[in-house]
Fold each of these.
Amino acid sequence: MEAVPEKYILYAEDDLDDRELVTEMMQKAEFPLHVICVPNGKETIHFLDGLQKGEPLPCCILLDVNMPVWNGLHTLEKLKTHQRYYELPVFMFSSSLSRADHDQSLSLGAVNFIRKPTFSAEMKAVCNQFSLFCQKNIRRKQ
């Protein structure tokens, strides 16, 4: 396994095109960040549990709602009930239009529920916001 970067976003998404686009846009963001992608929620927990002592946790986690194995809501619930991960900022980042998904995400502790943009320019703007969020949180911890 490759060394974990000091500053990164963990992105749980089953769609390869979405993973590639977000990764590309995060590299072009105002404060570029590495993106580590996993294909589902269970792999999110597996990745986090596999971090060695001293390896940093992600500055935030992006979860798609509709994924195989463990969907985003189930994964969010697992993260927020785990002592080591409950303070990690989690954003639901999904194409879901469901008000129930939105409301349940926020009630389970997501920072926000953000609908995936359909246009590249909008995706770039959203990725810039994630980048700024992480930059502010990194500064706050120092």
Amino acid sequence: MGTDLFDSWLEALNAHDGDKLAALLTEDGTYEVVATDSRFSKRTAPLAVSSIHDMSSDFSVSLVSIVEDGDRYGVEWEVVGTNDGPIPYLGLPASGRTFMIRAGAFGHAEGGKIKRHREYWDVSGLLAQLGVPPSSVVVYGLGSFSEEASEDT
């Protein structure tokens, strides 16, 4: 597999080019973003890149680490950008704030292309950076956990 796949993946994202990302998938490849419950195929992969670009016209991705074992991989990266566009799937307007997200994925390549890619990143961390307060359920849950933890000490 080598780093050619990841170099091309990084290039596609940083060029904000969904067609380049689609070209990296096998014909039956899937690209899943667990944080947004989204799944993309070769045909719909350009939507993944356009949705990121729509919420941040200046986003850029830098690779942190790659681990490969045969045709399986784990990859970690950071995304930085400015939220200068709306986030429709969350019903949020542009905040104008900058953000940095750490993310990772596990996947399976076939013939030098992505067969299965499952990506994870911290939605609540992104929302906090954009100034969206946590829901009362989250605040209550954290408060309850903190109170219980303090009773044990």
Amino acid sequence: MMVDSAYILVGLMLACPIVAGCSDSRASDVPVAVLGVPGIIRVAEVRTGYVNILPDEVKEQLDAREDFTIIDVRSPLQYQTGHLPTAISMPLVTLPWAMNSLARNKEVVAYCQIGVTSVGACNMLLASGFSDVRNMVGGISAWPYEVVTGNTIVVSL
């Protein structure tokens, strides 16, 4: 069957929580603008509440000693090989449980290796009631500054 690539046969609102590994039913409450023929869903826009932040901006916040939380959603081994200063290791698979140790009213910056997995983490945080969530664009691969090595702060199950 030939289908225009702009048409999505699997409902985005059902697939995203499953792909992201989020069992919270509120994750499917993301507003989606839909256009197209009834019966076939064409997604025009997915609105999210997280903000993209550049590595330079994160560095500025660190240098200014601003009060915010940085979470590294990569594996513990990747975290140990190099992470941002003050970053807490919260691998994506443990995030739904580990996030309970974070302040929901505080800015949270999530990052991964290249900035893709952290998008899923940002959406999980938003679905769980966090209001100031940011995704570091490019992940640690885009971080041109010194990293911390070792196992300093790890939160996992």
